[in-house]
Amino acid sequence: MKRVLFLAFAISTLTCQGQEIKADYPQLTDNNPTTYYTGTPGKNKLTFQVSYSTPVLSYKIYSSGETPAHDPANWVLKGSNDGKKWTVVDEQKDQKFCSRFQEILCVVKKPAIYKEYMLEASTSGKENVIIADVILSDKNMKAGWENFKYPKVVFESLNPDTGGSKIYHDLVQNPDEYVKYHTQKVAEILYYTAGDPMVDVQEIDYTLKDYNGVSAKGGSSPNINIVYSTQHIEKSAKESLYKLDFETRGVLYHELTHGYQFEPKGIGNYGNNKTFWACIEGIADAVRAEAGLFDMSTRKPGGNWMDGYRTTGFFLQWLTTKDPDAIRKFHITVRDLDVWSFDKAIKAVFGQESSIEGMWNEYQEFLKKQ
Ligand SMILES: [Zn+2]
């Protein structure tokens, strides 16, 4: 949600990235998918006033946690400079959200400079429309990723009668699309564009299974498999469907990273070398953290970069405060350095005068001030 600009309406006034904006429906523009605009059956007109002259190039609409019948299915985005004459800039029909709290990203077909935008949205049937968030952007949020090659996804629920499996389907209506969406999001964090040389993932078998655990990835690219525990789903859903969504996406980011990440060279393997293991699990949790799917208040001083998982992952994600591309650059060292080490990786990204110890100590100082 960087690059979020304008978004406007008339009741409350708030400041967004330096732009003063006004909102009639702040629940639509608060980046919080658990607060909704609840409208009427039929056409709903939502206006957004922009206070500066940049064309909207793309936008995202988020489904709510309510049932899919309340999702917007058809919409028109219009622009105006006087609030009277409206010009259609984009139109979408028969849209289906693959899950709850899910975005649909559209590139504006006829961008031009307007002071005000209006979204006219309706459901596919007689239900009232409910929308979680709307984000208008003056960037093309699809840029560089139009040609991403999605893997084939084979979804299976081994224990469809379990509570966890049933709740999963309340959350996810189209599991194949849901997994595919996240493959691209993972690749966007690890790589710069869809054209980058990338680990080739051709098929993902995604299975819900009744067992005492969380999730695991097996196989190796091009064919990987991921299991997700229905018991864990049930536990995560106790608080709310949104909590389940947060957890399910977070776990998926982690496991899918294992499909798309490079593996360090010259230091053995996952099972027999701790540096290899810490690198693999650290990057997977760094990607999850970068996606915003960890409770970052759990970050605490202590530990070591070799501890793996979130101790390493939070550290790697924190490096993006020094360089926004730090995760991508760090990941490229995994492909290029032979023999790979944390210290050589830090030096490759931040210069020969830097070191893993120095960087880690700086991170610890940052954590102590939190
Ligand atoms: Zn892992």
UniProtKB/TrEMBL annotation:
This is Secretory protein. It comes from the Bacteria. It comes from uncultured Dysgonomonas sp. InterPro entries: Uncharacterised_BSP (IPR007541). The lineage of its organism: Bacteria, Pseudomonadati, Bacteroidota, Bacteroidia, Bacteroidales. Pfam families: BSP. Gene3D superfamilies: Galactose-binding domain-like.
